[in-house]
Amino acid sequence: MNRIAIVENQAIVREGLRMLLSRNPEFSVYHATDPIALFRQTWTAPPELVIMDKIMFGMNAIEAIEEVKKRWSNTKVLIFTAKSAEENIVRAFQAGASGYILKSAAPEELLFAIPHLLAGHYYVSPAILSTVIQGYCRLGKAVLENICGVKLSTRERELLKLIAEGNKNKDIANILCLSIKTVETHRYNLMKKLDIHNVAELTVFANRAGVTMDSVNNGIERQPAEIIINHPSGMRIVERRKTSRKQTQHINH
After folding, report:
1. Residues 3-32: tens digit of each pLDDT
2. H-helix or E-strand containing 48?
3. Exposed/middle/buried for 87, CB within 10 Å: 0-12, 13-18, 19+?
4. Cα–Cα distance for residue pair 129/141, rounded to 1 Å
5. In what order do the strands lie in the sheet with 76-81?
6. Of 79, 101, 129, 152, which is least packed with CB atoms within 10 Å of its CB?
7. Can you give the pTM of this predicted structure?
8. What domains does the chain contain, in order, with CATH numbers?
9. What secondary structure, in 3-state letters, does 104-128 show?
10. d(CA 28, CA 7)
11. Contact predicate 206/216, CB 8 Å
């Protein structure tokens, strides 16, 4: 039996979720009106999944997510809310959430997402997927600029990654469809801007900034093994392997 806790202050939503999930004999469903009530319950074993809204009484959602992960590190958190602002979504995942579904979603989407969350995957409603990606792209750019103290162009960030991964000028020229002379110019300007004088220093900097595959393997930038991003009718699984630059997509119809 999978233990699922619903944290929802609106009785009609809470009861609707309970009835929906209770149809599955594999789910043991618990419920609470707010996070404090959830934590006050006596648990012989912790819930495996907590479904909660972004707006709750007694404790804000970010604090609640962090407290869930602090008490029960293996418990997954699914945000089920009407809030679709980029800041809300990104902060929820930063706090430790594993999924984010809008309340406007069909019941089938929730039922589809739960087994994948329980299996350790991440789930994002297709309606907000582009918002999530844009948010993390902006976040990564901000982190890089904070570390180096200067703003890098998109081309300079691409070049930094490729140089630090050991690519030669000829390889970079082929990858970026540029002339070798242009690559040499970009390389000179990049190293001058960062006040870095050799590739070894550049590699150390790039790893620290989290822009190379080595930084992924060292835990600076972590990606889930799989992210489920679509409905059962057209399920798409994006698989990222930490030991390889290769990415594969599996599409089931």
Report:
1. 999 999 999 999 999 999 999 999 999 999
2. none
3. exposed
4. 19
5. 27-32, 2-7, 49-52, 76-81, 99-102, 122-124, 226-228, 236-240, 247-251
6. 129
7. 0.59
8. 2-128 (3.40.50.2300), 150-210 (1.10.10.10)
9. CCCHHHHHHHHHHHHCCCEEECHHH
10. 14
11. no
